[in-house]
């Protein structure tokens, strides 16, 4: 009787182990197959906005677009000069004399420096691509004012009936303006709108 009981118990345990093995195998397989989630961080721009639409004086040229500005910060090392008053002693005629003397020293220090790279995107539309050669093109001229108040210009044209897309990059702009006008394929000639706001440093 003991032999029969032991046999039945042993057979039951073996059956449970056999049934449980596939479950455990499946569980481990599913766990291993689960992919790891990758995380990534994207730095948002310092400034982003749309501009326009702006027009030429006769409304035959139209410009609009977006401007994006990023902010980069880094440490800049430099030498800083500073003064220090020290006591200097010397012997004269057998007597010790001391005086306070101002001395100059320098040490290397750092400060935070920032630059602001930007991208201006534009869509330039020509609403009248026929007629007089002198005025059959749409023109947009960008005026960029830097932090040091220096100025430069970027111009683009469209002499076709389809809109054209332009983009240019720069750095450290205090303000950006655009003027829309009409002209020939070589240069703008007239019908200028005003200098319109695209971006200004807060």
Automatic annotation (TrEMBL):
Signal peptide: 1-27
UniProt keyword annotations, A-Z: Signal
Protein name per UniProt: Secreted protein
Organism: Planobispora rosea
């Amino acid at each position: 009787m003991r032999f029969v009981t032991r046999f039945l118990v042993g057979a039951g345990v073996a059956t449970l182990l056999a049934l449980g093995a596939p479950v455990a195998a499946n569980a481990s397989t599913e766990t291993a197959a689960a992919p790891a989630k990758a995380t990534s961080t994207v730095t948002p721009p310092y400034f982003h906005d749309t501009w326009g639409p702006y027009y030429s004086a006769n409304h035959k040229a139209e410009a609009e677009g977006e401007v994006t500005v990023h902010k980069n910060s880094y440490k800049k090392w430099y030498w800083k000069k500073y003064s220090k008053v020290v006591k200097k002693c010397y012997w004269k005629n057998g007597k010790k004399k001391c005086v306070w003397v101002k001395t100059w020293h320098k040490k290397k220090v750092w400060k935070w420096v920032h630059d602001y790279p930007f991208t201006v995107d534009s869509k330039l539309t020509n609403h009248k691509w026929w007629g007089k050669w002198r005025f059959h093109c749409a023109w947009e001229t960008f005026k960029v004012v830097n932090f040091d108040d220096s100025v430069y210009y970027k111009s683009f044209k469209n002499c076709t009936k389809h809109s054209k897309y332009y983009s240019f990059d720069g750095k450290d702009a205090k303000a950006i303006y655009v003027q829309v006008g009409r002209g020939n394929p070589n240069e703008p000639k007239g019908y200028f709108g005003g200098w319109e706001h695209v971006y200004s440093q807060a």
